[in-house]
Design brief:
The complex is a heterodimer of chains A (370) and B (256).
Chain A (H helix, E strand, L loop, with lengths): L2 H5 L4 H9 L3 H9 L5 H8 L7 H16 L2 E9 L26 H13 L4 E5 L9 H11 L5 E5 L5 H10 L3 E3 L7 H7 L8 H5 L1 H8 L3 E4 L8 H18 L4 E4 L19 H14 L4 E4 L5 H7 L6 E3 L27 H10 L3 E3 L10
Parallel strand pairs in A: 1-2, 1-8, 1-9, 2-3, 3-4, 4-5, 5-6, 6-7, 7-8
Helix pairs in contact in A: 3-4, 4-12, 4-13, 5-13, 7-8, 8-11
Chain B lengths: L1 E3 L2 E3 L3 E4 L6 H11 L3 E5 L11 H4 L7 E5 L6 H15 L3 E4 L12 H13 L3 E6 L3 H10 L5 E2 L13 H10 L5 E3 L5 H9 L4 E4 L1 H4 L4 H20 L24
Parallel strand pairs in B: 3-4, 3-10, 4-5, 6-7, 7-8, 9-10
Antiparallel strand pairs in B: 1-2
Helix pairs in contact in B: 1-9, 3-4, 4-5, 5-6, 7-9
Classes of the chains: A alpha/beta (370), B alpha/beta (256).
Chain lengths: 370, 256
């Protein structure tokens, strides 16, 4: 049994029609419910919920503060490589994008780490493209062992791996893995991923199951907003989360909401999501899941991030570079996407404090996995 | 005065350090609470950094630190974490928390008992966070814990003493102090816990996320004092029916 079995019970168009048919009455019921279901989630992400945005935001803030207090967790990505053997229509690292490729050496990684540490970070997110010949499980093992003395919390956003590979990385100190399905629309997925290992929809879909079986402490899901109807994709994400929470009950879960950003050779979003709609989605997730960790990256604007701090978001990146060597080694190498909020971590931390929240730099310890 | 292991406490209000808007607000709140035992999550502090912000704000002679193992999922992980805490924070006191379920943070009784037994042998003063399970409390007592910390309701829920029937059994049977931990949402919940005979309460969320944490800490401080005073003064029995002030047998007390 994996999520694939559950997923195949659904029909994309039926789900979509069901979301778009929700009424204001359904939204009110969802807001008042003691225990909320995926049907309530459909109502909260429906067009009908737009007029309930303020009460949704108020409830989202209340639930977030109850569970997470007035804290905001800080993390930063470290791009190890932009090599990639996939063709993806929306990504700067795509194989058909003719730019110079780079994978960091051990010395270069340590130079990057030095800068990241000087910014105050204790939680690092390792990011790569998908190049299984050069950036593979053995490489990740070396990197984790190399940087472990410098970070309490090590997360990864790389290609899907096998269960045994995840087990080995977890034993070395890997804390969490982010794996985005990009879209749950199977046919469109094929169009956006025409070549490379990533074109295998089901292998990617079952990655969270492999992570759960490996005993990962935390995993992050998400879809790339802009590829398909965001409401329907978000329903599938929520259904996936619900399945995972029930199956791998010892794992924590987080969500991100990457919206398509400009990049070298870029794809225009098929579906635009407004700021109001993103707030609606963040609040909807919080209202149905009080424990979910919600991240907001530097893809979003300063103004938007400043105000989302108190709406349901629980972790935030700052000072991010989306190119390998971007912090110290090779600042001009190819970016995966352009960032929008360019403020330094110190500026972001000050903004968080001004809003009455505490920036949290450390929330895990390697001693737990000795 | 409450005695746990080798320490005595005037205040029966123990507190936590999570969810505050800043370390300075946390410090002011904890001082207002009068708490002398404050639990701190090992995962939140950098024990190698003498300038760790949270630890700096907890340096007061009256505050004893109670490191906790929040984040571990097994007895084995808890033992590692405990040893790190003892070395880094120079205390053998430990709030043993093993909750593999990150959704409701409910404690794992099997791993907790295993870890408690091991850690007591290693010389730790163990205060285990557990479900309100009277049998588990006795088993933990047998392996040598210094106190038990049964929950009132799920952590952070502010739902109060949902487990009150079992708390009463635990309090009645326990030979070690009983600290009601988790779910206490209001000063009246804390007072109630003390009234039924709990030795202390541990409160975090209800104080940290209050509109005015400092004022709320003072309210809890007073509630705990009142609750204990009521317990010591021995509450009158509850009756399900009215008790006549002129009972049927009153005629026996006088003659016409």
């Amino acid at each position: 049994m994996s999520f694939k079995d559950k997923f195949e019970e659904y029909d994309w168009e039926e789900v979509k029609a069901s979301i778009y048919s929700k009424t204001g009455h359904d939204v009110q019921k969802a807001l008042l419910a003691q225990k909320r279901t995926l049907e309530d989630f459909k109502a909260l992400i429906s067009p009908a919920a737009a007029q309930f945005l303020e009460p949704m935001a108020q409830l989202s803030r209340k639930l977030t503060q109850k569970r997470f207090g007035k804290t905001m967790h800080m993390y930063i990505p470290l791009y190890l490589s932009n090599e990639c053997t996939n063709i993806c229509t929306y990504c700067g690292f795509s194989l058909d994008n003719k730019v110079r490729r780079k994978t960091l050496s051990k010395d270069e990684i340590l130079r990057e780490v030095e800068v990241i540490k000087s910014l105050g970070y204790d939680h690092v997110l390792l990011v790569t493209g998908e190049a299984n010949q050069t950036v593979h499980a053995a490489y990740f093992k070396e990197v984790i062992q190399l940087i472990k003395p410098y970070f309490s919390q090590i997360s990864m956003e790389v290609q899907p791996l096998e269960t045994t590979e995840y087990e080995e990385l977890i034993a070395l100190g890997l804390y969490s893995v982010l794996i985005y399905q990009e879209t749950y629309h199977k046919e469109d997925y094929k169009k956006h991923h025409p070549k490379g290992k990533k074109s295998n929809f089901n292998y990617r879909l079952e990655t969270p199951d492999r992570l759960g079986q490996a005993g990962i402490h935390k995993m992050g899901l998400g879809v790339l907003i802009g590829l398909e109807d965001w409401r329907t994709d978000s329903f599938f994400t929520a259904a996936h989360l619900q399945y995972l929470e029930r199956t791998y009950w010892q794992t924590r879960y987080s969500l991100s909401f990457p919206r398509l950003r400009p990049f070298s050779g870029g794809l225009e979003p098929k579906v635009e999501m407004t700021d109001r709609e993103l707030v609606q989605l963040i609040c909807a997730y919080r209202i149905i899941n009080e424990e979910l960790e919600i991240s907001l990256s530097t893809r979003e604007s300063e103004h938007f991030r400043d105000h989302c701090i108190q709406l349901g978001v629980t972790s935030i990146s700052a000072g991010s570079k989306t190119n390998p060597g971007g912090y110290a080694v090779e600042p001009e190498s190819l970016e995966q996407f352009e960032i929008s909020d360019e403020r330094s971590p110190a500026q972001i931390a000050a903004m968080i404090r001004e809003r009455g929240y505490e920036p949290v730099w450390k929330d895990w310890d390697q001693v737990f996995v000795q | 005065m409450l005695k746990i292991a080798d320490k005595t406490f005037e205040s029966r209000l123990f507190t936590g350090t999570g969810k505050f808007s800043s370390a300075a607000v946390m410090e002011e709140t904890l001082l207002a609470s009068g708490s002398e035992l404050v639990t701190v999550a090992l995962r939140r502090v950098d024990v190698n950094d003498p300038q760790d912000d949270m630890l700096l704000h907890l340096r007061h002679p009256q505050i004893h630190l109670l490191p906790n193992t929040s984040g571990v999922r097994t007895a084995k992980e808890a033992v590692f974490a405990a040893q790190l805490a003892r070395e880094a924070l120079e205390t053998n006191w430990l709030k043993l928390e093993i909750h593999p379920d990150p959704k409701y943070l409910l404690p794992d009784p099997i791993e907790t008992l295993k870890a408690a037994e091991e850690l007591v042998k290693l010389g730790f003063i163990i205060l285990p966070y557990i479900h309100a399970d009277p049998v588990l409390c006795k088993r933990l007592e047998e392996v040598g814990v210094a106190a038990v910390m049964p929950l009132g309701s799920p952590i952070g829920s502010n739902k109060g003493l949902k487990t009150i029937d079992f708390l009463e059994i635990i309090i009645e049977q326990s030979s070690v102090p009983v600290i009601v931990d988790a779910g206490i949402g209001s000063p009246s919940d804390a007072a109630k816990a003390l009234e039924i005979g709990a030795d202390a309460v541990l409160v975090n969320t209800a104080i940290a996320v209050a509109g005015d944490p400092v004022a709320m800490a003072e309210a809890f401080k007073m509630a705990v004092i009142a609750g204990r005073m009521a317990f010591e003064a021995r509450l009158g029995n509850q009756e399900n029916h009215a008790v006549a002030s002129s009972p049927l047998t009153a005629f026996l007390d006088y003659e016409l």
